[in-house]
Write a structure and sequence with these properties.
272 residues, 8-stranded mixed beta sheet
């Protein structure tokens, strides 16, 4: 397995930055909450003992509580955990590592990871931990971004990055879109004794006031993509920003605003 240790260190540093956390909540959470509500509505039931893994700001934690579940939230970011405790005061909110969870074996009916897997350096190890803490026949549900082939938003951003950026200038990181592929998700989960049950795609969108906003979102409200952008020369950063803005301007204008579609893979698996 590739060494993503430096990426993991940068992730922890980045999500301790209040500015990045606030920008993420402002720009990404309208989409991640849309997906989280879908997961809660279709997979979480009263009396479930559920883990919100990589719980972030805690809005999904709160949604699962509203469904009548008994919920724990786990995250490595103290900045996020402070917000989670405010959003879901009746949940058990724990600071910890998804690759070494501070929970006993076979304690959860459901484990949910809503856009968290891409922030973890060792994803197979995390899947093994998920299987460990799930009860027999328990369910794991995760959401991840669709790749550029299906997601116009990520096609605009990563098309510009591939055209102009030097990817070797930033630490190696896991494939952001790996689990959006059904075959990869099924095989990787099977290795952790998780049996893929469903792999579906749902859609959302960013509604932008200006075509330059999509670049700004990825620069200011992410750690991985933002790290890659900031590792480039000033000249290259200008080219990346201009390329993304041109794509948004020409393809996604809808009246006075710009509607940029984004796809999400929602995946569920049963503990074998």
């Amino acid at each position: 397995m590739p060494d993503f240790a430096e990426f993991g260190s940068r992730e922890k540093e980045g999500w301790a930055n209040g500015g990045i956390v606030d920008a993420y909540i402002r720009h990404f959470v309208p989409i991640t909450d849309h997906v989280g509500n879908y997961i809660a509505g279709n997979h979480i039931f009263a009396q479930d003992k559920a883990l919100d893994l990589c719980c972030g700001q805690g809005t999904l934690t709160a949604s699962m509580l509203d469904k009548g579940a008994n919920v724990s939230g786990l995250d490595f970011s103290p900045e996020m955990l402070e917000k989670a405790r405010s959003a879901a005061p009746d949940a058990e909110i724990v600071e910890g590592d998804a690759m070494a969870m501070p929970f006993d074996d076979a304690v959860f009916d459901k484990v949910v990871c809503n856009f968290g897997m891409m922030h973890i350096p060792d994803q197979p190890k995390t899947l093994s931990e998920i299987r460990r803490v799930l009860k027999p026949s328990g369910e794991f549900i995760m959401a991840t971004w669709g790749g550029p082939a299906t997601s116009p938003a990520f096609a605009a951003v990563f098309g510009a990055l591939k055209a102009h950026a030097d990817f070797s200038a930033a630490p190696s990181q896991p494939d952001l879109f790996a689990f959006a592929g059904r075959e990869y998700a099924e095989a990787t989960m099977a290795a952790a004794n998780l049996d893929l049950a469903k792999h579906e795609t749902i859609t959302s969108e960013w509604v932008l006031e200006k075509p330059t906003e999509l670049f700004d979102i990825f620069l200011t409200a992410t750690v991985g993509a933002g790290m890659l952008i900031r590792s480039q020369t000033d000249e290259v950063i200008v080219k990346i920003a201009a390329s993304i803005a041109e794509t948004v301007s020409t393809k996604f204008r809808n009246g006075p605003k710009f509607h940029v579609p984004v796809t999400v893979a929602v995946i569920s698996a049963k503990a074998c």
